[in-house]
Amino acid sequence: MSEHQSSDIVEDGHIIVRVIGKLDVIAAKEFEARLSAHIESPQPLIVLDFSECDYISSAGLRGILIAAKKSQTAKTTLVLAGMNKMVRQVFRVSGFDRMLDIEPDVATALANQA
Amino acid sequence: MPPLPSETVPAPSDRPNGEIGPAEAAQKALSDGRTFAAYDIASTGLDSAANPDELRLLAAMALVRSGAVDAAREQIERASIASKAIDPASARSREGILLAELMEEIWQASGQPADLDQALAVRLRKAEVGGHFVDMAHAALLTLAQGETADAWDLAKKALDRAAEEPDKTPNRLLDLAALSLIVGEEETAKGYLTRLAAGLSDKTLTRAPRRQLESLKSQGVAVDQNLIELFPPPTLVVYAGVRLRQEDSGGFPPALRLSLSKSIDGAIEKLKPTIAYGSASAGSDLLFCESLLKHGAELNVILPFQQGSFRERLVEPYGDDWCARFDRVIEAASSVTEVCQEPYVGGDAILGFGNLVIDGTARLRGAALSSSPYLMAVWNYLAEPSPGSPSDFIDHWGDPARLRLIGLDEIANEAGVELDSLPHAQPSPERQSDGEGKQRVASLLFADVVGFSLLKDDQLPRFWRFMKAVAFHLGVDIPTPRMIDSWGDAILTVHDTALASAGYAVQLGTAFNAIDSRDFGLPNRLRLRIGLHAGPIYEGEHPITGVPVIYGGNVNRAARIEPITVPGLVYASEQFVAALTAEESELEAAIELGGGTYRPRFHCIYRGIAELPKGYGTQAVYEVEPWRERATGAVAIEPGKRLTVTLANELSEHRRLATLFRQLVEPVKVPEDVPDLFELAFDEIITNICSYAWNDEARHVIDVEITVGDNAIRANFSDDGVAFDPLDAAPAAVDDDIDERVAGGLGVHLVNEMMDEVHYRRVENANRLTIVKKWQEHGN
């Protein structure tokens, strides 16, 4: 709903997807659809900006897993950035931190991929 | 049935020469509760309307209110306003207003989060382009229902700012303003609005809407003081029952007795202060009750067991002109007069006992709609033989002694110095009872037929019967056996002794029919069953020519007229049936609880409107009957810092409500700062799991949650009555797989397991019980 309305930043060469509020089971469906649309775009780099995200549940992880799989075939790089303590813990416990590219913030993510 | 007078809307657009157009007629029918007529008017008008949108939306509104939510959605999709963006012109048009109200009613009927989202989207859009207070206020309330407390706060704030510019203060507006003030934490302001609202309510039966609104806010985590809720006490309902006079007492009670009795009744009514009353109007204490209730400003609903003229002739006229005049005055002044049967009296007890059952049930139904249970006030003579139609009909089955007010006739007679040998109630004179074969009995009737059966061709009929055989197989062995069952083609008629048995049969038949898809049997369409239920006195006998058992009478014809107006796939019942069902349930409840058991309600009846019956059978109030499911609304008990119990619906969005309540629970306690977040995550995962795996149907169910706060631990229990499912049994998430092998399942349980200190599952009787515990060190995090 309102908090997840698209506020994504599309620029030449990358897309910054802002994850806002709670990425729970309700919000995950729309997030998954939004992310899939971005993966299919021609931009080579997608950064998921978690700096405004309070928490993520397994439904949100699912969306990210699907996006990560798609990005491999689509030759898009997917980078996650700006996680708070809670979100980082969920990624660690689920083992997602080991298979995804995670940076402390968006600036680092962009700089490392430049 | 809008709970408060609706907001003022622009006049309908379709009045060419001062004539009432279909839109206005449909609107009027809707506000009179004539749901089915509203649908007919609106859908018939569609063909010739230049701008069919308004009629489509009115038809959809009628469908929602008759329980056909999916059919309503189809109508809305076809309306052009629903497909295009709302612009400033349409935001305040009749179509725009209707659309917004309709989406909210659909959500209230379905309880589905997707419907809530849509209702909110319409309100937000209207608020954005129109900037009207109502839209902004409703957007805030719907956002709160989504669990988005912070957004709701913002929206409420904006709406309140806007309200300052719109001075109009209708009851609806005052309630909205109070709700918004509570959301933003301005309790004193809210109190001001609510006090004004309470003072201005002309009719005490209107307290329900504000009360429900406040209770709903509270359950959504808004701080609402109980004193505010108490500003809107539920109305006091009574059933009154008087002893009838003896036949030989023509002329009525001895005047001395009448005076003292009248005084006692007045006193009892003064004390209880009833707002709404139900009962009959025989000469004697019934009419004394009626007069006293009217004098005290109560809403009086007279329910007569049979035709009014016949009732007056049998139960009033023999006692003299004085009683006749009093009867006529009471009938004139009563808020409603209903005949249980539209036929004249034909003798016997059956109809009198049934009349009392309907009075009892109707009062309870009204009570259920107003969140209040009725009291019984009865004039009672303990020496009199209990017989059908006497006050003992009520007293014996009443159940709740705290809601019983007895007026002892013997004491009053003693004081008045009148000799009372034993004053039995009078039977209407029996000479009308037809001899021999024609004795009436009270029965519950079910008529069912298959929509579209008559269109089936001969080559399809064998497939149809194979399909019906599959339905029969699904009926189950515990289906209540009818006294009589008859069929003709696809049509079925059953007769049961009680409404409970009949409703059980109807629900099982409907469920079996809905469970099987006729297209699997090579039939062209998905066939639907229409089921109508009715109850009342009927004749039973043998057909003189065929020798087959038959039933006949006015109520059989009425039952047959109800079935064709029902919505296929649902079970519909007449008001008389539903009243009998409600009274039977309360009697059963009283019996079970007397034996120390716990009663689980069986059926839920929803008022669906007034239907016009075919073939000159007049109008009939109808209800939908469905198996009882616990309702989730309002079932919250919270002791901050200690304990929380709440009943959630099986909807994904409920974890947000639970998270909000959890934060209120732990607010006064010092818990490590990550604890609320960890529980929020666990709630999300656990509620999602239960909603996904516990039930295999689309129906509403509940999840009971209990959370207790200890010194350095918090424990949460989740119970549901779904199929046995141990989440800890599910395949563990393979956290070390790399991205290609990784599957998305099992993660939720894994997260809960990792984040909590204990997770247990037990199957207890027929319930799943999951417990999670989080502990922390006494000092610091």
What characteristics describe this protein?
heterodimer, A: alpha/beta, five-stranded mixed sheet, 5 helices, disordered N terminus, B: 781 residues, alpha/beta, eight-stranded mixed sheet, 18% strand
Please, could you describe this protein's structure?
The complex is a heterodimer of chains A (114) and B (781). With 114 residues, chain A is of the alpha/beta class. Chain A has helices spanning 25-39, 58-74, 85-93, 96-99, 106-113, and strands at residues 9-11, 14-18, 21-23, 45-49, 53-56, 77-81, 101-103. In chain A, 46% of the residues lie in helices and 25% in strands. Chain A is globular, with a radius of gyration of 13 Å. Residues 1-5 of chain A have low confidence and may be disordered. In chain B, the strands form 3 sheets. In chain B, strands 7, 8, 9, 10, 11, 12, 13 and 14 form an 8-stranded mixed beta sheet that branches. In chain B, helix 9 (133-145) packs across helix 11 (171-183), helix 15 crosses helix 21 (409-416) and helix 27 (675-693) runs antiparallel to helix 28. At the A-B interface, helix 2 and helix 3 of A face helix 8, helix 27 and helix 28 of B.
Produce a short descriptive summary.
The complex is a heterodimer of chains A (114) and B (781). Chain A has 114 residues and is an alpha/beta fold.
Give the percentage of residues in beta strands of chain B.
15-25%
The first-to-last residue Cα distance of chain B is 53 Å
Question: What oligomerization state is this entry in?
Answer: heterodimer
Please summarize the sheet with the most strands of chain B. 8 strands, mixed
What's the total number of strands of chain A?
7
Helix content of chain B: 40-55%
* Unreliable stretches of chain A: 1-5
Q: SS-based structural class of chain A?
A: alpha/beta
- Which of globular, elongated, flat, extended, rod-shaped describes the shape of chain B? globular
Structural class of chain B: alpha/beta
Q: Summarize model confidence as the mean pLDDT of chain A.
A: 84
Shape summary of chain A: globular
Distance between the termini of chain A: 33 Å
User: What portion of residues of chain A is helical?
Assistant: 40-55%
The major pleated sheet of chain A works out as: 5 strands, mixed
The greatest interface here is:
A-B, 29 and 36 residues
Residue windows where pLDDT falls under 50 for at least 5 positions of chain B: 1-16, 422-436
* Strands of chain B, total number: 20
What value does the Rg of chain B take, in angstroms?
29 Å
Q: How many H/I helices of chain B?
A: 28
Sheet-strand content of chain A, in percent, reads 15-25%
